[in-house]
Write a structure and sequence with these properties.
Number of strands: 0
Shape: elongated
Radius of gyration: 45 Å
Oligomer: single chain
Strand content: under 5%
Structural class: mainly alpha
Distance between the termini: 50 Å
Largest sheet: none
Order of helices and strands: HHHHHHHHHHHHHHHHHHHHHHHH
Length: 622
């Protein structure tokens, strides 16, 4: 099957553009495939990162770099910080970090990763030339895990630049073994069809349309491929083939209404009006808020007119007009409720149920009267990005509120410390005035002087033990008695006295050196104790003088932090108001478009009803 119509190709391009696989995943850029953790603070940051707690990871990393600079992990902390900023759409800060990394003398892997991130940032900002330049500087050193994402990024850049020839070259290099292969085929088909290679593009789309889907995303992709093929076949006036494609789409999927509308048109264009009524009547029984259903309300009586069932056509035209009137009234009410903040309120309520950090997107639809009309808008990547920013702002607002609520606790802690300090002042004063310390210090000095004299004069018996001193005293008494005896007598006793005293002297003299060092060691310990005591007194004196200043500094710091939090709170409140205004404006614009579309259907139905009444009136006159 060939699609020759340029209009058909343009319709395909618009349809596929909504199916682009967005490159929004945040990957940890690291110099090696297995990053060795050498720093505890960096490891803690990575823990929060892998838990998808990106705000906590940013906080930990910034605190670590401020107080304990991470110097053992190279430039990995900066690369991680840039990626974290990017997850919060802080493209300017992230871009500054990545740009600085490209200018440093670092490993080729890190430089390639930095260029890759810069390409992503430029693409997100629709700076396609800049994105292309960054991609061309990535080189061959980008870690292997980025290959598939890089291929998608390059392909999307070239497609948006309408450079289909180069896009085909890049996207044709896909591998069937990756999870991205089906999405690559999807994008490659766009490039081929827009480059007038319709047959090849259609073949790829058919491969995706026949995909053995394993999950809900792949099933949705398969439905989109069949839907695109169906409408392309309709444009090419290959109505039977179009009907076959539409039949492959699930009746309960997100594309089912468009498929029912399309298959009805396929039959209608083949002149099979009765068969076209079957899917359209099924469509009529579905929610009238869907544009496909609204169109079916008008196509059913049109087909009945073709079957000459004019009475039934009149009834269906009236049903269509009534349905359009109800929808217009509902839309008017919905638009007013959005203007009054009902949609924003529902988003806030939804946020309260999803306050965990790892919820990067609103995972359920808001409970709002506008939601049924805005499902396609909410599912879109651009609006999801706006909602994510809004959710991040609400989360940061909660963080600031939490910090502000902690201020009284810090003040209470400071007051308790002051009370504890005041209760210790009398004890410190008594400690400073204690005279016992001076007496002990004097005794120590005397002992030290005595030991120095003993060492200088080598007084051996000065270090004798108590038992040895007793023996020495006894020997002294014996000496006095022996001295009273006339010379020449008791010579044997004199010799014994000299022997015993010599033995005693030898014993004491032998142990003199170890005894001396033992005493000196004890005195040194006492000296250290006095030194510690002196330091304690100095510290206590310093505490008495400086502690009140510390308390004052802490109090000022708490007040400054509170003022800063208040200012940040005001700034973020202003940004939240702006974001809410933006969301409301986009929602109202979308609702207004739908209102205009229904008004157009209403006019056509009213005109057709009037025309049919006129034709019936002419018949009756005849």
């Amino acid at each position: 099957m060939k699609t020759n119509s340029k209009q058909g190709r343009l319709s395909l391009f618009v349809l596929f553009l909504s199916g682009y696989f967005s490159i929004t995943s945040l990957s940890l850029a690291q110099d090696e495939e297995r990053l060795e953790i050498r720093n505890l603070h960096f490891g803690e940051t990575l823990y929060h990162f892998y838990q998808k707690q990106y705000f906590t990871a940013i906080s930990d990393l910034l605190v670590a770099q401020k107080k304990h600079p991470i110097q053992t992990q190279g430039e990995n902390p900066n690369l991680l910080l840039g990626g974290l900023y990017l997850s919060y759409n802080m493209t300017q800060r992230a871009g500054n970090i990545f740009t600085s990394l490209t200018q440093k003398d670092i490993s080729k892997r890190l430089q390639s990763s930095a260029w890759y991130y810069l390409a992503r940032i430029a693409y997100q900002n629709s700076e396609l030339e800049k994105a292309n330049l960054a991609v061309n500087k990535i080189g061959v050193h980008l870690p292997f895990r980025y290959n598939d994402e890089l291929q998608h990024l390059q392909g999307n850049i070239l497609l948006k630049q309408k450079n289909y020839k180069d896009a085909i070259k890049i996207l044709s290099q896909y591998s069937d073994s990756t999870d991205w292969s089906h999405y690559t085929k999807f994008n490659l088909a766009i490039a081929l069809i827009m480059a007038d290679e319709n047959e090849k593009g259609t073949e790829l789309l058919e491969e995706v349309a026949e995909l053995d889907a394993q999950d809900i995303e792949q099933i949705a992709l398969r439905d989109k491929a069949n839907l695109a093929l169906g409408y392309a076949a309709l444009k090419a006036k290959d109505n039977e083939t179009a009907a076959d494609y539409f039949r492959q789409i699930r009746l309960s999927g997100s594309q089912s209404n468009k498929a029912l509308l399309g298959i009805g048109w396929a039959f209608h264009k083949e002149g099979k009006l009765k068969r076209s009524l079957v899917p359209w009547v099924e469509l009529k029984n579905r929610s009238s808020k869907d544009p496909a259903v609204q169109e079916a309300l008008l196509t059913i009586p049109h087909a009945l007119e073709g079957l000459n069932a004019k009475e039934q056509a009149l009834a269906y035209y009236n049903d269509a007009i009534n349905s359009y009137n109800k929808e217009l009234a509902t839309l008017k009410s919905v638009i007013n409720s959005v203007k009054q903040g009902e949609f924003i309120k529902s988003l806030r309520v939804l946020h309260l149920h999803q306050q965990k950090e790892n919820h990067l997107h609103f995972t359920t639809l808001p409970d709002s009267t506008a939601t049924p009309y805005l499902q396609s808008l909410i599912a879109g990547q651009e609006f999801q990005s706006i909602l994510k920013n809004y959710r991040d702002l609400l989360y940061m607002k909660n963080i600031l509120t939490h910090w502000n609520n902690q201020i009284p606790s810090y003040r209470l802690m400071l007051n308790e410390r002051e009370k504890a300090y005041d209760s210790r002042i009398p004890k410190i004063s008594a400690f400073m005035k204690n005279t016992q310390q001076t007496k002990l210090l004097n005794r120590y000095r005397k002992l030290k002087s005595r030991l120095e004299a003993i060492e200088k004069n080598h007084v051996v018996f000065a270090l004798a033990s108590e038992q040895e001193m007793n023996l020495l005293n006894k020997l002294s008494k014996i000496k006095k008695l022996l001295d009273k005896v006339p010379p020449g007598q008791l010579e044997e006793q004199h010799d014994q006295y000299r022997l015993f005293k010599g033995i005693l002297y030898w014993q004491v003299a032998t142990d003199y050196t170890p005894r001396y060092w033992q005493v000196k060691k004890r005195l040194l310990e006492i000296e250290k104790a006095f030194s510690k005591l002196e330091k304690k007194k100095t510290s206590s004196l310093t505490t008495l003088v400086k502690t009140p200043e510390y308390f004052k500094d802490f109090a000022n710091n708490i007040n400054n932090k509170q003022r800063k939090i208040k200012n940040l709170n005001q700034q973020i409140s202003n940004v939240i108001k702006y974001q809410e205004s933006l969301i409301n404006r986009i929602a109202i614009d979308e609702l207004t478009k739908q209102k205009h579309l229904i008004e157009n259907y209403h006019i056509r139905a009213s005109y057709s009803l009037t025309r049919l009444y006129d034709s019936l009136a002419v018949v009756e006159k005849k």
